[in-house]
Amino acid sequence: MKRAAIFSLIVSIIYILYQSLQPDFYLHLFPDVFAFHDRALYFWKNGNLSGLGYNEYQPGAIFFFVFLSPIFSLGDSIDIFKWALFGANITFLFLIAVLLIKMKRTEGIFLISLFLILLGPILLFRFDLLVILLTILGLYLWDKNQRYFL
């Protein structure tokens, strides 16, 4: 059952990656990547976010954007940032699957695969999977009666 669950996750990831590159989705979702990239660039150029002005993102989201930006050593291209964002979100999906397997909730991977297909590529352009990963990690640690991650 684990193999089938992982296979369903891989198929759904390929499907939303394909969708994410289609103009109907891409042109609608890509402007957010500009905003994320802009926040990260601002931080690295100024060393802080105090003069950023209007900022609608939570501190955790800003940290996530800045965390992705060490890839800027390859250049501060928006395209590099987009692929780093996609890569991080796909990594989060596999980490979620690993946690679900450890929790003996393999059927949850099928559910996530279904949600990926139904929601479409929007999850690749956002930071929601980080929140989902941290929530499931918290549930995993709670189930193991661990108060601390380390």
Following the backbone from N to C, one meets helices and strands in this order, namely: HHHHHH
Strand content: under 5%
Radius of gyration, taken over Cα atoms and rounded to an integer in Å: 17 Å
Structural class: mainly alpha
Q: How many beta strands in the DSSP annotation?
A: 0
Q: What does the main sheet amount to? A: none
Q: Give the overall silhouette.
A: flat
Distance between the termini: 30 Å
Q: How many separate helices?
A: 6
Low-confidence sequence ranges: none
Residue-averaged pLDDT: 87
Helical content class: over 70%
Q: Which descriptors apply to this entry?
A:
mainly alpha; about 150 residues; flat; 6 helices; single chain
Can you describe this structure?
This protein has 150 residues and is mainly alpha-helical. It contains 6 helices and no strands. It has helices at 2-20, 23-46, 59-68, 78-102, 107-119, 128-143. Helix 1 (2-20) runs antiparallel to helix 4 (78-102), helix 2 packs across helix 3 and helix 4 runs parallel beside helix 6. The radius of gyration is 17 Å and the shape is flat. The chain starts with a helix and ends in a 7-residue tail after the last helix. The mean pLDDT is 87.
Task: Summarize the entry for a quick read.
With 150 residues, this protein is mainly α. Helix content is 71%, strand content 0%.
Q: Which secondary structure elements does this structure contain, and how are they paired or packed?
A:
Elements: H1 2-20, H2 23-46, H3 59-68, H4 78-102, H5 107-119, H6 128-143
Helix pairs in contact: 1-4, 1-5, 2-3, 2-4, 4-6
